[in-house]
Structure formats: C-alpha cells, structure tokens
Amino acid sequence: MTFSRRITNLKESGTLKVLDKVKELQSRGVSIIQLDVGEPDFKTPDNIIRAAEVALKAGFTHYTPSAGIPELREAIANKLRSENGLEVKKENVVITPGSKQALFYAIMALVDEGDEVIIPTPAWTSYVEMVTVAGGLVKPVPSGNGFRLNVEGIKEAVTKRTKLMLVNSPNNPTGYVASRAELKAVADIAMEGRIHVLSDEIYEKLLYEGSHISVGSFPGMDDYAITVNGFSKAYAMTGWRLGYIAASRPIISAVNKLQQHSASCPASFAQKAGVEALKPETPVKPMVEEFKRRQDYICDALKKLRLFRFEKPAGAFYIFPDISDSGMEGARFCEVLLEGGVSTTPGDAFGDHQGNIRISYANSMENLKEAVSRIARALDSLGRH
Ligand SMILES: Cc1ncc(COP(=O)(O)O)c(C=O)c1O
After folding, report:
1. Domain that residue 367 falls in
2. Which portions of the chain are predicted below pLDDT 70?
C-alpha cells in the first residue's frame, strides 16, 4: 500500500505517545501519577450538563447548520466583542468540533504547497503537523528569555512566501502570557506584510496575572486576525468537542466550506451546552483559583529540588522547566521520572527543546504532593539533587 505524501510526512503526536505508554503501564497495574495531561481534571459544571440533557430530551439530536446554531454564533460574537475587543458579528464565527479542528480548517484554507508559516517555539506540535499536511513550510522562531515572544526573530523570519504567523497566548507548553507590547508588535508585522495571524486563545481563561489580550483587538487587524478558541479548557469540556473560529467573512466562508465537506457540523446538543457555558453563572473562577493554588504549590516544591530552572508562568496549567543541570536530555529525564511513577512530556515534543520537560498541574493537590515525593525519590536514586 502506498500512502499519500501528506501522511508519510506526518509525525505522531509527542504528547499522545506519552499517553499511550502511560495507559499501557497503568493497564499492567503500575501506579503512575499523570503530569503529562493536557486537560482539566474537573467535572464539566452542572449547568452545562443540564443544558445538554434538556437539548437531548427535547430531540435536539440532528444536523445543525454547518457554521453552527445561530444562538451560539451570536453568543460567541457577543463574547468576542465585549471581552476581547474584536469587531465581529455572528457571520464572522464558525463553531467547530473542538478548536483543533478550527486551527486545521484555517491552515487548510490559507496555506498552499511551499507557503511559509512562522511559529514561535516552544509550540504545540499539532500546529507543525497541520502545516505539514497542508504542504507548507514551518519557520520556527525560538522564544527569548523566559519564553518572551522574539519579535525581532519573527520580523526577520518574514519572507515573500510567509502566509501565516501563529500566536498562542497563554502558551502550551510554557504557560507564558504574551505582553500587550509583544502582541502589538506582531500585529504591526502582520499589517505591514499583509500576513494573517492565527491566534490560538484556548487557555485564555486560565490566567493568574494581568489580563488576556487578543491580537485581533488592535486597530486594523480585522482582516488579518484569525481567532481560535473553545470550551475544552475554560469549562472542562474536552470530551464535548466544541470550539470556534472568528475571522473576516471570506475566511469564514472558506472555513465553512471545509466544515461542510468534512465534519458537517459540531454535535447539536454540545452546541446548546456551549450557549449555557458562556453564561455568567458558569463557575469558572473556582477552577482558576484551584489551578493557581496548585501552581503555587508545584512551583515552590520543584524549586526546592533545585534541578528545575523556570520562571513561574502567568497562565495555562503547564510549566516547562529547563532540566539540563541534571546532565540528561528531556527524553531521558522523563524516562527516569516515569520509572519513579510520574509521567511528564519531553521538551522535544514541542520543537528543538531537548533541555526541557513539560509538567502539567491539571491533577489533584493530593496527587501533586505524591508526585513531588516520587520525583524527589527518583532523582535521589540518581544522586542528582
Ligand atoms: C494550544 C492548544 N490549542 C488547542 C488545543 C485543542 O483543544 P480542543 O480540545 O478545543 O480541540 C489544545 C489542546 O491540548 C492546545 O493545547
């Protein structure tokens, strides 16, 4: 059998590879505390579940318009206007089965063979693989100290073939939150070069300092910003598969065509649940406060182990410490921790970052405490801390 070139060039997801290994160990009865996870461990709030139940019982179980139900498109447009400062109407919004699908549509709609896409790294690898599927070329731009956006590097990476720039703030895997000045600089580069910016804002609500800034909110960005967000992380709704994309009408029309010929539409009752999720009664704040408590704990505890070098990030639920003082690369370091009963993700799953590992604190405080003891023991056994 001969596979298409697209598939031959595609790599397996580094994060899902870790997960497969963990599941295999767990199925053999090995106790592993998962700090590799990319999803909130909280339950989806009750009001959201009730809204889906009501929709299901009322028979709202069929195809919806491909761009999504008008009620949810409207609610999202309102949210983007009032919270994010974007000049959008419901016609600028398409609801998708997860934000990953929205990113995929945007890339497929814009990137041709040989087009270049600038991606600041460390970055979530799915961006890279999506660009590869589209036939595009990734131009990675390593971030500066403390994972600040390397604006000069981004500017220098622009060529005549640059089609798209990617921004992900708060960031996976670093938790870094880009400053207004950095995002303004990216917007200026975009407008000057007439380049689109794909802004992945999925961790928007998981913010512990400052406020969230959408790159599309800068004047003149309406035609260039493509804003992607979703319900997975803010409302603990990873399994519902619900996300969205907001952009200029021509881009939205292209995205909608791709959706019509692939997913058709997102799940009907999940969309009704999405309308409910956006209401003020959804308890997002307690979840964010709990993440903050866990962040404080894990950062203090890891600093005491001394091998982990990092600045406490302002968002998401990850830290991306430099572990090179251990004399090991991230992949080996993660193996040592896994042998000690804690799963983490090697930095090379996020680009050329062999000296780092990603630690997720989307796990209970009790598990985090046990994980820290296990990490300390694993490193003790090597005589490395
Ligand atoms: C940076 C980033 N963007 C997008 C997604 C995808 O989220 P969704 O569940 O909405 O597809 C993830 C999931 O881990 C992510 O980390």
Report:
1. 5-44+284-381
2. 384-385
